Amino acid sequence: MIPNQPIEEPVSLSMSPYTGPCTKAQAAHLLRRTMFGATNQQILSAVSNGMAATVSSLLQLPSVSPPVTYDPADGISAVGTTWINSVYPVNATAAQTTETTRLLSLAAWSMQRLNNQQLSIVEKMTLFWINHFGATATFDSRATYNYHMLLRNNALGNFKQLVKDVTIDPCMLLFLNGATNNVFSPNENYARELLELFTIGKGPQIGPGDYSHYTEEDVAAGAKILTGYIVDGLRSDTMTSPVATFLSLLHDNTNKQLSYHFGNATVSSAGATEYSNYIDIIFQQPQVATYICTKLYRYFVNYDITPAVQATVIQEMASTLIANNYSILPVMQELLTSQHFYDVALRGSIIRGPIEILFGKLNATSSAPTFNLETNANMYLSTYFFGETMGQAYLAPPSVAGWSAYYQAPAFSQLWVNSTHIKTRFDLAAYLTIFTGIAFNNQNFKINALAFVNGLSVPSDPVIVINDICEVFCPKPINAIQKAVLKSILTGGLPDFEWTVDYNAYLADPTNINVSTPVRQKVEQVLFRVFVMPEFQTI
């Protein structure tokens, strides 16, 4: 059974800065919640640098290189060059072939980003926004790439501006029918989700067509406000990127009346900027801040939100968001340095999703493919499909609401571990540790057990090795019997000094497979056992 029962009320509900010790336990908790897997050395560096400096580093957004062509079937972009500003072939069949290669390139690139995350919250935040604005990959990978980069580049930016940018982004315009929403045939899809999922939240129904925070009349008015945008350049053989274009002929130029939830405001006809004026009105409602801060809390802290947490922690986060004109960065700074965030009761309260499972293993063990472009890309594609098999295809949220484990009460993250997916998790653990791993072009990609053990505090001491492994991978303490079992696997049931002798022999001659193989295999066996433990399934 996975230990993810609702927790008791945390000891501290204070959002005041954390002033307790910065031990390995606190540092590991911070990095587990803000990154997809952290190495032992990253955790030790966080301890050495202190909480404030580590959080400051985490809140930086490093740049990332764009995806590149690895399959010559692209037909336009040469292998090794990026396709993000390339045209498509004139012939429709050839254009589809080009699109297929680019979509696969995009999927591989997304996994490569996660595997090379650096010490930053950016990839964890990007997945939060991918889930929040749940648009799947469109049929032009350039638009999908631009959409994902919009979310990544603004991961800690201004939430209000991000909503505005997403509203007229080609990928979203296509996904929720905004590109066909016009004065002659208004489409309410995006107008509804803008209110229900993206900004203010639906709330319980309190009357006919009234959902606590907006009404059906607001949805209808919003659809009219949003009319007039189309998408140009899809798979164009001349335009290097799809763009959103406003056509006044297709826009509803009447004034639109909103409900009492928005102070009975009137949105005057304003052409291409009318949508922006409407969003400004939505953001005048404090409920927007409460809604998004609740989602941030569930994602980074705990899904089980008690009335006390809602009334104190989340309301303080919302107040910070409003005071900073909806900038996300100050909210995350406050949350990640708060006493509440480090309360021991919160550790292990969230079950790892598939992306967490995959890269919690790979990144913490410094495991990455280091072969040629084609081989690496195909290996990353395999990791993408592993995530999909476990229920989380990175480029394709299952609905506009995202993955159900992030929003569906009361189970939330427990939904990741049904009877099918838990078996897949265990099979994957074996595949990446004790078996061959991902094979392509006569190369294999699996957990780098030797690099991992070399990065532990004292690799030659089996007791310290096991302690380090447990601290890296398990959010809650492991009991003495479990540690004894793991140490027995590491030593082969022999006295501790036998491991020390074996490791030192490997260290003296690391290229000699006769001495490296026994060390590697024992570490792999230990990691496999850890990866199927209930304690590893949570963060």
Helicity range? 40-55%
Structural class by SSE content: mainly alpha
- What is the count of DSSP helices, taking H or I runs of 4+ residues? 22
Please state roughly what percent of the residues sit in beta strands, choosing from under 5%, 5-15%, 15-25%, 25-35%, 35-45% or over 45%: under 5%
Low confidence ranges: none
Question: Summed up, what is this model?
Answer:
The chain has helices at residues 24-34, 40-49, 51-58, 92-115, 122-132, 141-153, 159-167, 170-175, 189-199, 216-225, 274-282, 287-300, 307-323, 328-336, 354-362, 373-389, 419-433, 449-454, 462-473, 480-491, 496-508, 513-531; strands at 229-232, 243-246, 256-257, 266-267, 438-440, 443-445.
How does this model look, in words?
By secondary structure, this protein is mainly α. The chain has a domain of 165 residues. The protein is 49% helix and 3% strand. It contains 22 helices and six strands. The strands form three sheets. The protein has a two-stranded antiparallel sheet with strand order 1-2. Strands 3-4 form a two-stranded antiparallel sheet. It has a two-stranded antiparallel ribbon with strand order 5-6. The model has no long low-confidence stretch (mean pLDDT 96).
